[in-house]
């Protein structure tokens, strides 16, 4: 009987992951753009890493992303989105196996509650570092539960290669190895970061790179970070229901409180704390308050969600525990209603899933739920969660400003200037032209020094989004000297936030 149930559960797992894969691929195929400009930059780094091998270890690109995406990136953005969809479906499956290791009866639900989280779903058809980081983390946690220490050490060591702010949390894996007296696996876990940091310490002749990412804080090496800014320490706490989705968030809070404390709890609390502190006090880490950083926890949240549904059938014996859980769930209700209210005021969108989830949270407050109602609640949770996914997650449609950049690249590639040296900042221009942006004889960053040193005849692409800020710091006024620069083409558009966008193409004539 038990074996038969497990077989049925495995079929449900395969069906769930297959359905999620179809959803992820569908989003990718219907997208004409990608998550952000960062995605295009990651794609460019991966695509040109074969020609410039040092890009495989590029700090901004992250080797944890660049290396596994280097090959597929040769086939374009659609191929990268397809690989992300497959990887996301695999992560959902890993989350289910992690739930099975924690004795969750309907463990396949963890796959669904991982895949329907809005930020995780967006990453499934994007080119960003959080998705491979989630894959490394889930594999390491699963190996830890199964006591496969070598696998755990290897994949734990890969986690900061995708998102370096996770480095302090490797201590939780290190403690497991020390308890088991697996001392040499500690070296295996540290090896990826030693290779990465050692390469740049030698390449740049700067020993402080051995301390990366701590060197950014200790020696203020974060660069131009004022563009990203900081925010209140509670920022990421308020973003939890937004990133995880109403149903997974509500169920995960309940599962978090009911499950016996383990490494999943430590990772959840530790990672949210790191994001909160970094965004609040450490701008050099460039966290920037992005919701997508929370998607690294998606498989853990999915596991907690599945356990939360199972725990509904288990009584809470301690009165203080019962009231403590109810107090936490009241805060969840407030968060869901607040999120729904803000979305309605700012965008005119009714988050039906958030409103329905308030009723779900009310059921979670009951001391115990009958088996028949528990099964109905499982079905309702999946349906409401899918509704929330389709309400909140839409295909990436190219912005008017990005389309103007692509229009400019079409003109440029058909013009007599296409063989000239290009100075630019916006990554869409390098993507649209296909020029190697890491070949200094063809492409250079648009900085005042580079503009001054560029040979006569060079093409300078100024845009109002990047050129004037961060490491470029090139105002347009620098180019408005008709004795030195000739305006060739000019494009106007609108950014996603409604602000005007300008792109101007100059040629240096003196």
Automatic annotation (TrEMBL):
Signal peptide segment: none
Transmembrane segments: 12-29, 85-108, 120-143, 149-176, 183-202, 233-257, 264-282, 294-312, 324-343, 349-366, 378-397
Keywords annotated in UniProt: Membrane, Transmembrane, Transmembrane helix
Protein name as annotated: Glycosyltransferase RgtA/B/C/D-like domain-containing protein
Organism encoding this protein: Herpetosiphon gulosus
């Amino acid at each position: 009987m038990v074996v038969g149930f497990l077989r049925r559960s495995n079929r449900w797992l395969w069906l769930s992951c297959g359905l999620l894969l179809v959803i992820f691929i569908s989003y990718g195929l219907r997208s004409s753009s990608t998550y952000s400009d960062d995605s295009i930059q990651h794609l460019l780094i991966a695509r040109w890493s074969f020609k410039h091998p040092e890009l495989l270890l590029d700090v901004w690109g992250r080797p944890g992303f660049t290396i596994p995406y280097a090959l597929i990136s040769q086939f374009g953005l659609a191929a990268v989105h397809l690989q992300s969809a497959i990887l996301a479906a695999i992560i959902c499956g890993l989350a289910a196996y992690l739930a099975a290791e924690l004795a969750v009866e309907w463990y396949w639900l963890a796959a669904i509650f991982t895949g329907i989280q809005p930020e995780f779903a967006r990453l499934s058809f994007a080119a960003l570092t959080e998705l491979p980081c989630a894959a490394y983390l889930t594999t390491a946690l699963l190996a830890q539960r199964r006591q496969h220490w070598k696998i755990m050490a290897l994949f734990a060591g890969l986690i900061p290669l995708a998102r370096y702010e996770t480095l302090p949390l490797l201590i939780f894996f290190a403690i497991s190895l020390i308890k088991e007296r697996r001392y040499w696996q500690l070296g295996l876990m540290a090896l990826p970061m030693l290779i990465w940091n050692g390469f740049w310490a030698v390449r740049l002749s700067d020993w402080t790179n051995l301390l990366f990412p701590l060197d950014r804080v200790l020696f203020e090496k974060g660069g131009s970070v004022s563009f990203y800014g900081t925010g209140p320490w509670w920022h990421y706490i308020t973003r939890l229901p937004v990133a995880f989705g109403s149903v997974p968030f509500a169920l995960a809070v309940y599962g978090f409180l009911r499950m016996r404390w383990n490494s999943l709890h430590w990772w959840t609390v530790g990672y949210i704390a790191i994001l909160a502190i970094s965004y609040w006090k450490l701008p050099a880490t460039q966290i920037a308050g992005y919701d997508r950083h929370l998607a690294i926890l998606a498989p853990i949240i999915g596991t907690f969600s599945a356990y939360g549904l199972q725990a509904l059938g288990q009584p809470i014996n301690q009165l203080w525990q019962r009231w403590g859980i109810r107090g936490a769930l009241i805060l969840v209700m407030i968060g869901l209603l607040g999120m729904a209210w803000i979305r309605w005021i700012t965008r005119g969108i009714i988050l039906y899933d958030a409103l329905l989830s308030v009723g779900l949270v009310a059921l979670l407050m009951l001391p115990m739920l009958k088996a028949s109602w528990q099964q109905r609640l499982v079905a309702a949770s999946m349906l409401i969660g899918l509704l929330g996914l389709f309400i909140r997650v839409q295909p990436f449609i190219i912005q008017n400003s990005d389309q103007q950049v692509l229009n400019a690249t079409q003109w440029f590639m058909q013009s007599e200037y296409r063989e000239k040296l290009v100075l630019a900042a916006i990554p869409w221009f390098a993507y649209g032209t296909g020029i190697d942006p890491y070949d200094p004889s063809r492409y250079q960053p648009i900085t005042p020094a580079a503009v001054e040193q560029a040979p006569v005849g060079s093409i300078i692409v100024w845009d109002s989004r990047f050129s004037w800020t961060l490491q470029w710091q090139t105002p347009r006024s620098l180019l408005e000297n008709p004795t030195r620069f000739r305006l060739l083409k000019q494009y106007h558009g609108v950014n996603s936030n409604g602000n005007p966008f300008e792109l101007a193409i100059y040629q240096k004539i003196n």
